[in-house]
Design goal:
Radius of gyration: 18 Å
Shape: globular
Strand order of the largest sheet: 1-9-10-8-2-7-3-4-5-6
Strand content: 15-25%
CATH superfamily: Dihydrofolate Reductase, subunit A
Number of domains: 1
Number of helices: 7
Order of helices and strands: EHEHEHEHEHEHEHEEE
CATH topology: Dihydrofolate Reductase, subunit A
Amino acid sequence: MRQIYPQQSSGQEFSLPGLYAYPDEAGRGGAPWIRANMIASVDGAATAAGGRSGGLSGKADRTVFGVLRALADVVLVGAGTVRAEAYRPARVAGRWAGLRAGRPPSPPIAVLSRRLDLDEGSALLAEAPGHARTIVITVQAAPADRRAAVAKNAELIVAGSDRVDLPAAIGALAAMGHRRILTEGGPHLLGQLAEAGLLDELCLTVSPLLVGSGAGRIVQGAGPLGDPGLGPLALAHVLEDQGYLLSRYVRVSRGG
């Protein structure tokens, strides 16, 4: 893996954790910092054959994926992504364990689910470690029996009446001490966060694959993103490895 932007001096090495470090204030009681990590093919597809993003991934992308999870306080995902990608509790590789100093060994997964159509016996809910119990964020209108079933194996947050109130959900996570927030999508959640002006950073991997028609983009469900939206974005860095481009963009209004 090599850094191609900003250009480095000959022989200069870079640190992945350093390149992807959160702003200091996010870990010291400041406002939450919401980072998205997404992957797309060179023709803009968010998924490969089978409707899963994993088919686009490679070694470099998986390495950065591991670093981002190790740096995060919590990983935020939509229920559709949990089902499509067969989510399990997050694990941090030994090489990145030092990034968790002063925090639990791994971050919890937080799932947004309006209807709570989740399998309470799944690994994500039933096998999460005690230090990182899965968090499920739902609404007041969710069926009471589903709320009770999910609450047996997960931390339950109610944010909104019949639609998840994203600012309230983010506020609840921050109140739990989770200010460095990593979202892995899916595209509808990313669209909602961007449309609400809540997204601070986008880490985007461009996979050297052509997928063709039929696949969606990394942002779906949102209208044209004007103000507050996401933009403008500043390019913080670009890495390259075997044709993969790994870029980090930061919203200009929040700095880098």
